[in-house]
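Help needed: design a sequence for this.
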């Protein structure tokens, strides 16, 4: 029994060391079903807990006591197994579901792609991305209820000024769009909102993106 416990403890220690290194070297954004910085902190906390348990199990006197009480050892390992299964199930349930924290980490090109996909699952059709350069301020062309939209995508970590509104205003004329919009993970300055209202440009800010993202995730969970 002692030999088996020694092997199990070593396996737990090795797994915990790997998990801890992964958490430090590459922040995980969906650990325990929590995104962003909170997910990384949750992963580090969970890894620290398992490290403490592993170190406790590796103590000679603890190992000897467990070997002397096989039923207690079995109960302990069963509890650990249940916890691991719970984490795996929760991770699987969250797999593939994006959060705003995930989107905040994307680069410009990937943000455009995910915007197109979000629009697809929120009622838009005939969606196509324009060329990467020389797009005249329009990143996505899409239709909804017979209306052609020209959309500029902006992944920003601060408020957007009026420049995107000026760019999309010119771009929709080039592509002969009915409506122009700026889609962002951020928000807009008061001046940008004022200009957008004056020239008829729709502003799809972080709040709207969150709503569409929730709709997309609900659809994906049912598939």
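Sure. Designed sequence:
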């Amino acid at each position: 029994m002692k030999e088996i416990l020694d092997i199990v403890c070593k396996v737990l220690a090795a797994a915990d060391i790997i998990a801890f290194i992964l958490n430090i070297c590459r922040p995980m954004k969906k650990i325990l079903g929590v995104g962003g910085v909170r997910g990384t902190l949750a992963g580090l906390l969970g890894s620290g807990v398992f490290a403490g348990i592993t170190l406790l199990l590796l103590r000679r006197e603890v190992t000897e006591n467990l070997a002397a009480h096989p039923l207690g050892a079995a109960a302990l390992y069963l509890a650990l197994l249940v916890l691991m299964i719970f984490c795996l199930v929760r991770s699987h349930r969250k797999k593939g579901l994006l959060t705003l924290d995930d989107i905040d980490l994307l680069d410009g090109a990937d943000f455009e792609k995910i915007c197109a996909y979000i629009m697809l699952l929120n009622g838009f059709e005939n969606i196509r991305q324009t060329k990467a350069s020389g797009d005249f301020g329009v990143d996505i062309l899409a239709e909804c209820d017979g209306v052609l939209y020209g959309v500029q995508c902006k992944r920003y970590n601060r408020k957007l000024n009026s420049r995107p509104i000026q760019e999309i205003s010119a771009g929709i004329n080039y592509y002969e769009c009915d409506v122009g919009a700026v889609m962002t993970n951020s928000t807009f300055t008061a001046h940008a909102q004022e200009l957008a209202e004056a020239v008829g440009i729709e502003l799809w800010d972080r709040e709207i993106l969150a709503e569409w993202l929730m709709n997309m995730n609900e659809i994906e969970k049912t598939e």
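The CA atoms of residues 111 and 165 lie 18 Å apart.
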